[in-house]
Design a protein that fits this description.
Chain lengths: 233, 123
């Protein structure tokens, strides 16, 4: 329970055995009474075992579906088990669970709340093409959603029942679709989106999925995905 | 002139079909992008078939049209190879799914058998 709402924390994880125990432990310590679902997306290390030992419920996918695939499973679980709120948190320890009550508070008047870097708190910075991509995405998506969005690819989000129901049946598995396309889709259907500034921490262990060399490709794909999302129904 | 009209219209029709399929989410992004890229090359060529004549000459091919045919066949072959690769990956995935399913069923059956055992010894 967070603020009287049944809350599920969904953590998509791929080979995060180095940090998952601390993340699950911290979430359970900071937020007593929430349930934690770790979706292990075909990890080749001991992520699932470590997460179970730390006290999380673990759903183990037989092979890698990507963050979007893992998240739809998470939202289905939330819907089937009748949760009021579902919150996505990264498995690398970059998201601070102490912000969760703030996100949940805002769900009273909004349907989807995003914990955003670059919004005042913390000192997370990105440079080069990856930054240009983020600026472009922010500008366009802010207009579509009629609210200021500075961190559209954030994996720190809280959804209420209406959005859980939608995401349980529709959630793209494609690259960037899980962040960019879901925002366009959600805004287009009249749901209210809001962002909350959060400080982002360094990942605790493991390797980040993005290398600087891929930044330029990232920009191109971000543009393609955005265009596609905008012409799609 | 007539030919240009036919090829040009065919190209535009293909473009429309692909965009519409993408819009209706019937086509995954990766395939959609591939076909859109192909059309971006094909449509100008269908309107101005002589566009590739210079390149053809450079490569020692008699005319731009034969070059397009050659490239088209190579491209289609690559697409076939790619699709076989995708199907192989899918087969591997369904195999894993089937195994998971069988393992789950075995566990459930074992559980049920154990429970029935308990009930019969109790009763
Ligand atoms: N389910 C699933 N989770 C993934 C996959 N790839 C990454 N993740 C998880 O997604 C979260 C974010 O991944 P990161 O690599 O940290 O991406 P990021 O936070 O955008 O990038 P950094 O700023 O470099 O950390 C982590 O919890 C990862 O474990 C995947 O293929 N499937
Ligand atoms: Mg991260």
């Amino acid at each position: 329970m967070v603020n009287g709402k049944r809350t599920l924390i969904i953590i998509p994880a791929l080979n995060e055995s180095g940090s998952i125990a601390d993340v699950v432990g911290e979430v359970r310590g900071e937020l007593p009474g929430v349930d934690v679902l770790v979706v292990d997306d075909g990890s080749t290390d001991r992520t699932a075992a470590v997460a179970t030992a730390a006290g999380a419920t673990v759903a183990k996918l037989p092979y890698n579906l990507g963050v979007g695939g893992a998240m739809r499973l998470g939202y289905r679980y939330a819907r089937d088990h009748n949760y009021d709120v579902a919150i996505q948190i990264d498995a690398d320890g970059q998201h601070d669970p102490r912000y969760v009550p703030k996100l949940v508070d805002l769900l009273d008047d909004n349907d989807l709340v995003i914990g955003a870097r670059f919004a005042g708190e913390g000192d997370y910075t990105v440079r080069g093409p990856r930054r240009w991509a983020m600026v472009m995405l922010s500008a366009v998506l802010s207009r579509v959603a009629h609210t200021k969005l500075t961190d559209t690819t954030s994996g720190f989000r809280a959804a209420n029942r209406r959005v859980i129901d939608m995401f349980a049946t529709w959630y793209p598995a494609e690259y960037l679709g899980d962040t960019v396309e879901t925002l366009v889709h959600t805004a287009r259907r009249g749901y209210r989106i809001r962002q909350v500034p959060v400080a982002m921490r360094k990942r605790m262990a493991g390797t980040p999925s993005h290398s600087p060399a891929r930044a330029m490709i990232y920009l191109g794909r971000a543009f393609a995905v955005l265009t596609l999302a905008l012409i799609r129904r | 002139m007539k030919l240009t009209l036919v090829t040009g219209l065919t190209g535009l029709l293909l473009l429309g079909t692909i965009v519409e399929l993408l819009r209706r989410r019937q086509l995954r992004e990766k395939y959609g992008m591939l076909w859109l890229a192909v059309l971006v090359v094909v449509i100008p060529l269908s309107l101005f078939p002589r566009l590739l004549d210079n390149v053809a000459e450079l490569l020692g091919v008699a005319s731009g049209v034969s070059l397009v045919l050659f490239l088209g066949i190579v491209f289609l072959l690559l697409v076939c190879v790619h699709l076989s690769w995708e199907v192989s990956a899918l087969e591997e995935e369904t195999r894993t799914l089937a195994e998971d399913f069988a393992l789950l069923r075995a566990e459930i059956d074992a559980d049920r058998a154990a429970r029935d055992e308990l009930v019969s010894t109790d009763g």
